[in-house]
């Protein structure tokens, strides 16, 4: 007879009886923030290509933004294997939907709703998919941008960010985002946010992709890196005038 | 075998006697009391002629705003000011203490205080308390060797930086600095950038709020701009004003004088040997 101890919340992990060890307790390979904004023609989403294994930068070529069907982009931060699982679920969903062969296709709102249900139900069973997902898309001329977290919190907004992006990128977006940004302005704004994240998030790497979705379809850019500036005189000689300090 | 325990007065510094008891209690499940934290955004930046320090003005006690307009920029010396984040009592006490020490030092040496003196005094104190004095400080000033800006962490480590942020709103403020800081800012550009970063903390962090305080220190001159910006004014004031209950009526006035003091001189008996 398996004894079931009431799970006590201890920060990130959950203590349970040994027999039931098939639940996600903590993430292993993780992706860092995603930043996304609505712009004039659709949605822009930026992410870097790093996958960290704890404090090691293990994988430097992970695409964390994928196209879903014709109308949506899904970006994920958190556990990479759970993201791949979600992509499989969405594959099945879009395949089943295709088989109806009625000319309809799943739009971003529908996929967002599906993902919300999946994440919330998994969380209710104490077996979460350890991701924060960003869903952006355009259907029938209307752009859509939403977010689902691993506990099932879901909402829509004009600009979203996950993980560290919440603290570092959102203040910039709240100040400088406005409706009907042009493509160039949108990319500049995203790059501004990604640069701050690069300076201040330890798991960020300088290799990012920006994905764009419009009524015409999805384009994911080639990976590229941002220019950084390290030439402040105080950085060169921090103890000038304060000899012996650090 | 004599069991004499002489009470030796503690030699000063932190007394670790109760730590074992506290450990035992936490293992039994007792939660330690939490501190009044300032939940803050404090920033400093070096511009062309000196240093600009900025701070918000909200002090929180858990989820409640305890003080809507507190002062987080503390005076250390005429040419040195220090912003404090963390436990309010700790920041007040430690900056006050070092401020007095600096004053005495000024009398003794006959010279203006230097920023690294304040830095070393603070750092030594905080390190010896192993992080239990929960004060995170942004120390800035202009002395004979030039403008300086340092951050001091509760465990006693320090950084020397061109721009710095501390407190719960530090990430929001740092994102503004990282995006917009340049070297050689003028006074007005510097004040604008500091105000922008404090506002970023005020509007994006729940632990920071109310107004922006700014302090500009240059060679031989300092300006303490208390409530430089008030982006959260009270917009609704009821036009009805306050109405108290109906007039109080005086029913009775009675004055009872205190009893007269009576001196009793007793002729006591002489003490027996």
From TrEMBL, chain A:
Keywords: Cytoplasm, Nucleus, Proteasome. It comes from Arabidopsis suecica (Swedish thale-cress). Non-catalytic component of the proteasome. Belongs to the peptidase T1B family. PROSITE patterns: PROTEASOME_BETA_1, PROTEASOME_BETA_2. It is found in: Cytoplasm; Nucleus. GO terms for biological process: proteolysis involved in protein catabolic process. Component of the 20S core complex of the 26S proteasome. The 26S proteasome is composed of a core protease (CP), known as the 20S proteasome, capped at one or both ends by the 19S regulatory particle (RP/PA700). The 20S proteasome core is composed of 28 subunits that are arranged in four stacked rings, resulting in a barrel-shaped structure. The two end rings are each formed by seven alpha subunits, and the two central rings are each formed by seven beta subunits. The catalytic chamber with the active sites is on the inside of the barrel. Pfam families: Proteasome (PF00227). Transmembrane segments: none annotated. This is Proteasome subunit beta.
